[in-house]
Amino acid sequence: MEEALTALIVIGGLFVALPIIIFHYITKWKTAATLTTSDESLLEELHAMARRLDDRMDTVERIISADNPDWRPARLTSSDDQDDYGLEQVERLLKERVRK
């Protein structure tokens, strides 16, 4: 009798309790990996700030270039496709998200 009860508890724990624990932590892991609405709004705010700072840097570089024609900017200018590729991709993704 005692052996049957022990076997029943072990089998129950193995086939019921263990999967429940595993699926619980899988669910926790998946929900932690998603962005919340506050995270999304923070990312949008940071993107807007990065765009403004990029525009300001372009303005400063134009002013310095006008004052000193021999000066060469240390970074790429916004007219180059490589410079704004990341920002353009983020803007495209934001526009697609707004459409949905």
From TrEMBL:
<protein>
    <submittedName>
        <fullName>Envelope stress response membrane protein PspB</fullName>
    </submittedName>
</protein>
<keyword id="KW-0812">Transmembrane</keyword>
<dbReference type="GO" id="GO:0006355">
    <property type="term" value="P:regulation of DNA-templated transcription"/>
</dbReference>
<keyword id="KW-0472">Membrane</keyword>
<keyword id="KW-1133">Transmembrane helix</keyword>
<feature type="transmembrane region" description="Helical">
    <location>
        <begin position="6"/>
        <end position="26"/>
    </location>
</feature>
<dbReference type="GO" id="GO:0009271">
    <property type="term" value="P:phage shock"/>
</dbReference>
<dbReference type="Pfam" id="PF06667">
    <property type="entry name" value="PspB"/>
</dbReference>
<dbReference type="InterPro" id="IPR009554">
    <property type="entry name" value="Phageshock_PspB"/>
</dbReference>
